[in-house]
Structures are given as C-alpha cells and as structure tokens.
Specification:
Blueprint: H1 30-47, H2 49-53, H3 56-83, H4 89-120, H5 136-147, H6 150-156, H7 162-168, H8 171-188, H9 193-213, H10 217-232, H11 241-266, H12 270-276, H13 278-287, H14 294-303, H15 308-321, H16 324-340, H17 347-363, H18 370-379, H19 391-394, H20 397-422, H21 428-435
Amino acid sequence: MGDTLTTNPPQILAEPSPPPKKKTPFYLTLWGQVLIGVALAIIYGYFKPASAIKMKPLGDGFIRLITMVITVIIFCTVVTGIAGMENLKKVGRIGGKALLYFEIVSTLALFTGMLVGNIAHPGSGFNVNPATLDAKSVADYAGAAKQQSVTDFLMNIIPTTMVDAFAKGNILQVLLVAILFGFALSMVGPKCKPVVELFDAMTHAVFGVINILMKLAPIGAFGAMAFTVGRYGIASLGPLAKLIAVFYITCTLFVLVVFGLIAWAAGFNIIKFLSYIKEEIVVVLATSSSDPALPTLMEKMEKLGCSKSLVGLVVPTGYTFNTDGSSLYMTMAALFVAQATNIHLTVGQQLTIFAVAVLTSKGASGVTGAAFIALVATLMVIPTIPVAGMALLIGIDRFMSMFRAVVNMIGNGVATVVVARWEHELDKETLQKNLA
C-alpha cells in the first residue's frame, strides 16, 4: 500500500476585531457640559443674584441663534420630502393622522391636569382675597389673549408674503408655504429636479450650522438658568412648592405612563427613547424653551429610522398642535387659581374650562408666553374666576415652563415615531439599533 497523502487544511486568520470605542467622558458630552453649566448657574444665581440677572442675554442669544435657522430647516425638509413622495395623497393622510393623534393625546393631557387638580387640591389653604392681587401684572397677557381669537389664529397661518413668513419666523406660515412649494415641485416633475437637489443640499448645510451652534448650548444654558435663579430666587418657590411639586410629578408620570404605553404599543421603550434624546431634554430644561431642540430633534428622528418627509411634516406641526405639557399646566393651573381664591367650581364650569382650553391651547401658539396667555384666555370665559389670580403664578411661571417645554418636546418625538409606525415609514432595525 502506498503512503496516504495528508494535508492540513489552510489556516484562516481571523481579522482582528476593532478595538472597543472609548466611552466619551461625561464632561466632554454635550448634555454633560449643559448639566455642568446649569449647576454652576444655580450656584452663581443663588450667591450673586444681581450679577446673575445680567447673564440673561447669554440664554436669549443662544435661543435666537437656533431660531434664526429653524424656518430654513423646516422649509427645506418639508419641500424635499413632499417633492420626493410618489403619491401626494400620502401627504394628506400623514397630516390627518398626525393631527388626530395630537388632538387625542393633548385632550388626554388636559383631562389629566384637571383630574390631578381635583385630587391634589394644590391651591387649598391659600385663602387669597382677589382684591389684594396685582391685576396690572396680568394686563399684558390678558391683552394678548383678547387679540388672538381662533379666527385670528386661522387667518394668521396665511402670511402676507412668502418672505414675510420667514421674516417673522412663524412656523405654521413657513409650513404652509413649504407644503405648497413641495406640491408644486412634485407636480412639475423632472424639470424641477435640480431645485429639489439644491434644497436637499441646503438642508445638510443648515444642519451643519446647527451642529456648530449647539456647541454654545452650555453657555446658553448657564445664562438662562442664572437669570432664572437670580431673578426669582429659590426662596420664591416656597409658598407655591406644592403646586410645583404636583405639576413636576404629574409631568413625569404622564411621560412614563401615558407616553410609555403609547411607545410600548408602537414597539419601543420610552426609557431608551428618553436616553436617546437626553441632550435635547437637558437643553430644553435649562432654557425653558422647546425651540432650541427642534432642529436636532428632527435630525435624531431621521437617524432613528423615520422617513425624512414624515419628520418634516409631523415635528413642526406638532410644535403648534401637540402641546401636551402646556395642556397639563392649563387645567391644573386654572383649578389652582380657583382653589387659592376659595371659589368653588361646578362640574359644568370645569367642563367649560376643559372645552375652552382645547381651543385656546392651540390659539395662543407662536406667541411669547403662549401657555400663560392661553390660560388667561381660558379663565376669561369663566367670570367667577378672577383673572387677577394669575398674578400668583407669574413668579414661578419660568420654573413651570421648564417641564411644560420638556413634555411638549418629548411628546412630539413620540408622536413622530408613532405616526411613522402607522404609515410604515419606520425602519424597525434602525430604531432598535439606535435605542439600544
């Protein structure tokens, strides 16, 4: 027998696995730097209140830097999204579903605020005489509330000129112009392809600007928080601590329970989602405004797997129609004023407040201090509740607006994922990968 030839199988060298990514230190992350800025601002505002008040331009300047490009982002995103859709009926369907979702959830928020107000009675024990309140401090808000009726709100959606919409920075007006422009480009077809590509390139460029501006977020957060603490002081929270605590707890539970159940039904975890948008949450809390988070929220929703066109429609519209945090505040604050002034409200009067708040919560959108103005407009419908009672809330409104703005922003993020899931415009693998 001959020798058997045996050969060893060739050795396959495994490629070396890439080294694990080093975790970015806390102090180098955006949200970490913002938190540090907020902590320093609280200390500075407490010990140097006079100087801290002068830091207000830092916060205002940062918000203005972000808001100056918001309209351009919305316009470019919506135009390219609609122009890229094959079926224009889809635009109307997405918009209809989004508005239906907004109305259901914001109405649920109004009901939750009213329910908690009746159970917790945050205004009990104040025994305030309305005649002793400073009605002048509410006069400006009352004037704005009278000027902005539902009809005015609807007419205000139509800009005087296309340029005027961008000049005023009115999100709804820009959205209307963008939708019309997107429809036009889509109907013209291939001839407008260079225009669509131009707007798409502009979108990437403007998001690059946002990434640069967000590096200033810690400075803006420091200025805004230093002013808040220096101007109003931690001590000013004492008399109204119960209302603030009840509102903060209600907002937290609404996010975890209501949004949590909605997220669960849509196939994602609310805690992981909150972790994903933690930078936006911290910035909104520090500045008491949801505007700085709009551009980066839209960018993150796209990265999460939602289609670009859907994000461009749902998020900007939600900033006007899906104000869950403001809705929670309005009904709870209305009951607080009644309880603090020892005014008993019948079930019918409470239902009237509820019904009016459904409209006024949208009617004051786009106005500075929108939630406060909307609440004044709501109370004006019930003559038995003194509008002057709102003077009790002016000193703490800045602290209340922190959580209002955060819930509004989170609600719009959740709404975007939910509508994307309904429309099958969501990449589930990308969603789970990013949330993990």
